[in-house]
């Protein structure tokens, strides 16, 4: 049995004649020219951090609405607190990375790690505060809101793929 030499793909063909063969990935390639780098950036889909925050907010709203339909008020509030522990720190990070004065700094790895650290610290602080202050917390609802919002970035990624394939 022979190994196929080409691979069927359902996505757009990348520019510059690049291919998906792994054996070519290890070959030495010359650095990209500025024009090639611009072409590659235009081909690669961009994902705004605000799109991720929007997808997480949508997932949180849907989770809270479903919790309100299925249980008493404490279930909806617990789902709200779980979703808030993801959405609010995510919005702070998106704001920090997209500020006008931070756009250049956002390209640097240390800026990304700084805002990621702030986001994680804020999420942990919010969850600890909720556990301490909310006495009738419904744990499954809070964890459902938290996990659904954490996984909602896939909604933004799916939308990005659809928009890019329409061009």
The SSE order reads: HHHHHHHH
Task: Output the number of helix runs.
Answer: 8
Overall structural domain count: 1
Distance between the termini: 38 Å
- Structural class of the helices, strands and pairings? mainly alpha
- DSSP summary, beta strand count: 0
β-strand percent reads under 5%
- The dominant shape is elongated
The helix content is over 70%
Mean pLDDT: 80
Provide the gyration radius in Å. Answer: 21 Å
- Pick out the low-confidence regions: 3-10, 163-167
Sketch the major β-sheet. Answer: none
Please sum up the structure shown.
This protein is mostly helical and 167 residues long. Helix content is 71%, strand content 0%.
Please give a handful of descriptors for the protein shown:
mainly alpha, 8 helices, elongated, disordered N terminus, disordered C terminus
Q: Can you walk through the features of this model?
A:
The chain is mainly alpha-helical and 167 residues long. The protein has one domain (49-166). It is 71% helix and 0% strand. It contains eight helices and no strands. It has helices spanning 22-25, 34-43, 49-70, 73-98, 103-106, 109-133, 139-151, 153-166. Helix 3 (49-70) packs antiparallel against helix 4. It is elongated. Mean pLDDT is 80; it is low at 3-10 and 163-167.
Strand-helix topology:
Blueprint: H1 22-25, H2 34-43, H3 49-70, H4 73-98, H5 103-106, H6 109-133, H7 139-151, H8 153-166
């Amino acid at each position: 049995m022979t190994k196929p030499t080409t691979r069927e793909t359902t996505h757009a063909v990348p520019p510059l004649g690049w291919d998906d063969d792994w054996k070519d990935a290890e070959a030495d390639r010359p650095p990209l020219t500025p024009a090639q780098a611009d072409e590659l950036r235009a081909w690669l889909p961009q994902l705004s951090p605000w799109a991720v925050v929007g997808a997480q907010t949508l997932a949180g709203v849907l989770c809270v609405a479903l919790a309100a339909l299925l249980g008493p008020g404490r279930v909806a509030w617990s789902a709200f607190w779980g979703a808030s522990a993801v959405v609010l720190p995510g919005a702070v990070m998106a704001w920090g990375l997209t500020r006008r004065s931070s756009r250049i700094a956002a390209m640097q790895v240390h800026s990304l790690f700084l805002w990621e650290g702030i986001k994680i610290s804020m999420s942990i602080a919010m969850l600890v505060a909720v556990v301490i202050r909310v006495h009738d917390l419904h744990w499954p609802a809070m964890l459902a809101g938290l996990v659904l919002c954490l996984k909602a970035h896939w909604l933004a990624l799916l939308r990005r793929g659809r928009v890019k394939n329409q061009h």
